[in-house]
């Protein structure tokens, strides 16, 4: 599937433009059927974008927000993506949105994934918006090269829902939506910043194995064009 690159002079410019795009898309979905859904990425990159989006005038009480992936840590852990969303997105006007966390208080990551799958079934499929990040190794969501469940995660026949992922350097076990849960979003965005990430993206857009650079699965197999938002 083709991708479209949107380049901006700064992270602030990117954040404002992406917030406008997301707000318009969510509002259109609400107008069409009364609700809207968005799955967002964690890490440090989306902070400014989250803050910008939180101020947009949307019928937030009709919006459900979740994460594309999460660490198996409680919401008050500094490494939690839930904490990042709570502090930066679920603020201002966006306080009225409904948030569905992936982390569940369970004895194991596998049990947490099962519980999260049950809870997130309340979100109608496909997502209206999925926003992904990308690591320097070409991972996205928690689809890590060499990850314990990578083949299952990327297999389009794997049912929608959340599975676990463990990988060297990933730290805690991860909870991640399967590729089949994300690929058919009405709007699929790849948000990346830095010259280094642009170089990684160029490599990913070339030939090569999806298992080596899992972002290739998104670029090649998403069912609608991938909107790439990049700033230096």
UniProtKB/TrEMBL annotation:
EC number of this enzyme: 3.1.1.31
Gene Ontology terms: biological process: carbohydrate metabolic process; pentose-phosphate shunt
Record Pfam families: Glucosamine_iso
SUPFAM superfamilies: NagB/RpiA/CoA transferase-like (SSF100950)
Keywords noted in UniProt: Hydrolase
Every Glucosamine/galactosamine-6-phosphate isomerase domain range: 10-221
Origin superkingdom: Bacteria
Reaction equations catalysed: 6-phospho-D-glucono-1,5-lactone + H2O = 6-phospho-D-gluconate + H(+)
Pathway entry: Carbohydrate degradation; pentose phosphate pathway; D-ribulose 5-phosphate from D-glucose 6-phosphate (oxidative stage): step 2/3
InterPro entries named among the record's database cross-references: 6-phosphogluconolactonase_DevB, 6PGL, Glc/Gal-6P_isomerase, NagB/RpiA_transferase-like
GO MF term set: 6-phosphogluconolactonase activity
Function: Hydrolysis of 6-phosphogluconolactone to 6-phosphogluconate.
PANTHER family, per the entry: 6-PHOSPHOGLUCONOLACTONASE (PTHR11054)
Alphabetized NCBIfam families for the sequence: pgl
Family membership: Belongs to the glucosamine/galactosamine-6-phosphate isomerase family. 6-phosphogluconolactonase subfamily.
Protein's recorded name: 6-phosphogluconolactonase
């Amino acid at each position: 599937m083709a991708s479209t690159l949107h380049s901006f002079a700064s992270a602030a410019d990117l954040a404002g433009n992406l917030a406008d795009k997301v707000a318009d898309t969510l509002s259109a979905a609400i107008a069409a059927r009364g609700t809207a859904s968005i799955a967002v990425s964690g890490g440090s990159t989306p902070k400014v974008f989250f803050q910008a989006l939180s101020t947009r005038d949307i019928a937030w009480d009709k919006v459900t927000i979740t994460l594309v992936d999460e660490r198996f840590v409680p919401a008050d852990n500094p490494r939690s993506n839930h904490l990042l969303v709570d502090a930066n997105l679920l603020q201002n006007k966006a306080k009225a949105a409904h948030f569905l966390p992936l982390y569940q208080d369970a004895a194991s990551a596998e049990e947490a994934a099962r519980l999260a799958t049950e809870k997130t079934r309340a979100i109608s499929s496909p997502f209206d918006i999925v926003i992904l990040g990308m690591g320097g190794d070409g991972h996205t969501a928690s689809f890590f090269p060499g990850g314990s469940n990578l083949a299952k995660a990327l297999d389009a026949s794997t049912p929608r829902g959340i599975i676990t992922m463990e990988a060297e350097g990933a730290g805690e076990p991860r909870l991640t939506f399967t590729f089949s849960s994300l690929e058919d979003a009405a709007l699929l965005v790849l948000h990346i910043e830095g010259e280094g990430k642009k170089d990684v993206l160029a490599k990913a857009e070339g030939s090569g194995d999806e298992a080596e650079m899992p972002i290739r699965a998104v670029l090649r197999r998403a069912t609608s064009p991938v909107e790439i938002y990049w700033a230096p």
